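Hey team,

Sharing the CopY/TcrY family copper transport repressor run so nobody has to redo it. Sequence (109 residues) first:
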Amino acid sequence: MIDILSNKMDWSASTIKTLLSRLCDKEFLGIKKDGRKNIYYSAIKEQAAYDMSVKRVFESMCCMHYGETLHDIIENIELSKSDIDSIIDVLKKKRDTAPEEVHCKCLEE
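Structure output:
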């Protein structure tokens, strides 16, 4: 791991060890001891990692831009018919309780 990342990212061994340690602390990676070696493995599912990443993006933006951002994403990615049907179902359910207008909450925190 250190050989690969140090060559690919031009990072020092201590930087890589720190990164791995932090990822283990945050429970993104698990670790198994194999003698003197550490074997790292993913502690979360791939979809969970994607979900967390997207949630962080939306947490960093004003809620008044959610709709436009989602619209742009949907317009510019390829989706299967079943994905589209699933999204439509979720939106229909959300529409029942959605406000007429979303108000900025940026300064409330």
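The longest strand covers residues 29-34.

Ping me if you want the raw files.
A.
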